[in-house]
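Researcher: I'd like a candidate sequence for this fold, 295 residues long. If you have to choose between options at a position, lean toward the conservative one.
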């Protein structure tokens, strides 16, 4: 059975060995094991902290949390009552059916509509559908956002991001090609400095120091390279990418981060987080990423 439904999660199994696990909580992909073109033995490509809560008590520290409708602390009046990174990563999604189940890919849909707990803090009408697909060397995630409102409720304004925790030795991993791209540095101490546009000068971006950079007008296709593997991230409708690694400086202050966890991953997070997507009534926006194992 290539799609296995358990009480708290769905497991996708591709006939050639790749697999993924998705929690209903947050629609969080918490495991992606995949063979590489040169090694038929599937290996885990995502990082999940051993201290992460997987029981729905708090967002998962690792895997691929879905960030919606705000990235970071809310800045839009519609999001004012929401926690950091919004509610999508901490709500229970529904199973919306199998989309595809063959050699080309094994794929399921999860859905989220306003629940009582969302309505307490967020009033906009919306529908989310999240489609996760496992192929031989690939994992694709697609987020479809629909404005289900009436003409009187107006535009749906939101941010969205896939918070990928890519398993890799943080002292050796590099991300390309970001040379020449404008970015904002969230590690700066003041709001004024955080808002200052900088230009990336490195041909290959590393995270050997505490890094929390939001790249603007990013190329949409990235390669994450380390001695343990090479991964391509190809995106659609995500003009930004965030590169985050807290290193010991900030990582040791994160309650659900295992000791030294920051040495084991880099977050490369495609998103729409500078400004807002503005969706007219009845319209749907789709953000997509395709992760391909190259080595
Ligand atoms: O601790 P969390 O709410 O999961 O956020 C973890 C991190 O997410 C993103 O990468 C942000 O750019 C960081 O500033 C933030 O620290």
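Model: Candidate sequence:
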């Amino acid at each position: 059975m290539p799609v296995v439904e358990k009480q708290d999660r769905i497991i996708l199994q591709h006939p050639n060995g790749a697999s993924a696990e998705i929690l209903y909580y947050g629609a969080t992909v918490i495991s992606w094991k995949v063979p590489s073109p040169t090694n038929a033995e599937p290996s885990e490509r995502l990082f999940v902290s051993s201290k992460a809560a997987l029981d729905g008590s708090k967002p998962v520290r690792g895997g691929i949390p879905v960030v919606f409708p705000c990235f970071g602390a809310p800045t839009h009046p519609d999001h004012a009552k929401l926690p950091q990174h919004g509610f999508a990563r901490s709500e229970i999604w529904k199973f919306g059916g199998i989309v595809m189940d063959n050699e080309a890919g094994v794929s399921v849909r999860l859905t989220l509509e306003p629940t009582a707990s969302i309505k307490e803090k967020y009033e906009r009408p919306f529908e989310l559908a999240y489609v996760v697909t496992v192929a031989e060397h690939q994992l694709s995630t697609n987020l479809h956002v629909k404005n289900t409102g009436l003409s009187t409720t107006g535009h749906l304004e939101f941010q969205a991001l896939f918070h990928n925790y890519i398993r890799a030795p943080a002292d050796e991993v590099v991300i390309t090609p970001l040379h020449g791209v404008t970015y904002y540095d969230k590690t700066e101490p003041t709001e004024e400095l955080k808002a200052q546009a900088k230009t990336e000068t490195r041909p290959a971006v590393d995270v050997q120091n505490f890094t929390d950079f939001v790249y603007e007008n990013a190329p949409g296709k990235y390669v994450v390279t380390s001695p343990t593997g090479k991964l391509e991230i190809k995106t659609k409708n995500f003009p930004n990418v965030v590169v985050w690694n807290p290193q010991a400086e900030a990582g040791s202050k994160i309650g659900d981060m295992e000791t030294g966890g920051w040495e084991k991953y880099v977050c490369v997070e495609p998103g729409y987080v500078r400004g807002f997507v503005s969706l007219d009534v009845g319209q749907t926006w789709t953000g997509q990423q395709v992760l391909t194992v190259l080595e």
